[in-house]
């Protein structure tokens, strides 16, 4: 029996999802729609989308205010960002049906224009944090309210430009900037430990003068507390996540950085998430 993923996108205002049951319902609904969108478009990058989805939903439903800006530097997880926007009624089902299609505004990486909630095109890894730092400094110079939050991957910290941005952020003491690392431990060619070991990443951030905490990136309450706290100076949150989270055959498997879903695996994934 095939499982229907037809759900409503009409959320006039972000609900308060700090309770476990509401968060679980939101996550289940979002994961089902993410799988459907990727299956119907024949597009991969599903594993990394599932690792960051909890973070993006938490940001959009519990954290972001009207004066805040979010940059998804990990641009290959654009699908999860689109689903988070859809879950708040900021994108429609018709938009999602056009994902990765010709003439779509929902490209495989966040687009350069056309979606007000997406300030920059991203996906060339290592660039998003520099953009976020510039936005945060501009807010301070212009005395504008709100924070800038930047979501990166852990593999993205192989890029020298990420560390250059961190030097700038610490030097400028950008107290209105929060870095969130989707630390799923895998990248395109292996584990982060095999490709270029970064651990302990949190200690490296602290050595640059950035206050840093580590949280379970799939614990909605822990994320809400960590992201909602304000303290002096720039901050970083290393969110420990799992690639392909919630789907047994994708969980912690590098190949799901790339693979699309066939019909049988799609149905299995839906059963696991729905059940």
What is the count of helical runs? 10
Average pLDDT works out at: 90
What would you call the shape? globular
Uncertain residue segments: 1-21
The CATH C-level class name: Alpha Beta
What is the number of independent domains?
Answer: 1
Features:
12% strand; Rossmann fold; alpha/beta; 7 strands
Word description of this protein:
This protein is 42% helix and 12% strand. By secondary structure, the chain is α/β, with parallel strands linked by helices. The chain has one domain: Rossmann fold. Helix 1 crosses helix 3 and helix 5 (128-141) runs parallel beside helix 6 (160-172).
Brief sketch in words of this structure:
It is built from 10 helices and 7 strands. With 275 residues, the protein is α/β, with parallel strands linked by helices.
Q: How is this fold's topology laid out?
A:
Elements: H1 20-41, H2 46-63, E1 69-72, H3 78-87, H4 93-97, H5 128-141, E2 148-153, H6 160-172, E3 177-183, E4 186-187, E5 190-191, H7 192-196, H8 201-207, E6 211-216, H9 220-228, E7 235-240, H10 263-274
Parallel strand pairs: 1-2, 2-3, 3-7, 6-7
Antiparallel strand pairs: 4-5
Helix pairs in contact: 1-2, 1-3, 1-10, 2-3, 2-9, 5-6
């Amino acid at each position: 029996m095939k499982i229907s993923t037809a759900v409503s996108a009409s959320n006039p205002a972000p609900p308060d999802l700090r309770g476990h049951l509401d968060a679980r319902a939101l996550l289940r609904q979002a994961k089902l729609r993410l799988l459907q969108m990727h299956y119907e478009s024949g597009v991969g990058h599903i594993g990394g989308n599932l690792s960051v989805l909890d973070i993006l939903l938490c940001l959009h439903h519990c954290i972001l205010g009207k004066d805040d800006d979010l940059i998804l530097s990990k641009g290959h997880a654009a699908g999860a960002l689109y689903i988070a926007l859809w879950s708040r009624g900021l994108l429609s089902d018709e938009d999602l049906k056009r994902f990765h299609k010709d003439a779509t505004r929902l490209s495989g990486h966040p687009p350069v224009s056309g979606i007000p909630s997406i300030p920059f095109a991203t996906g060339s890894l290592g660039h998003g944090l520099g953009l976020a730092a510039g936005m945060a400094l501009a807010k301070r110079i212009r005395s504008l309210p709100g924070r800038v939050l930047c979501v990166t991957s852990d593999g993205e910290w192989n890029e020298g430009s990420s560390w250059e941005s961190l030097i700038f952020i610490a030097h400028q003491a950008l107290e209105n900037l929060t870095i969130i690392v989707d630390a799923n431990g895998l990248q395109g060619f292996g584990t982060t430990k095999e490709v270029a070991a970064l651990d302990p990443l949190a200690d490296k951030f602290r050595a640059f003068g950035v206050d840093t905490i580590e949280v379970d990136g799939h614990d909605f309450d822990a994320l809400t507390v960590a992201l909602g706290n304000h303290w002096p100076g720039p901050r970083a949150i290393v969110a420990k996540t799992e690639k392909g989270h919630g789907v047994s055959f994708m969980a912690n498997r590098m190949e799901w950085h790339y693979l699309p879903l066939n019909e049988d695996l799609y149905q299995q994934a839906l059963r696991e998430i729905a059940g």
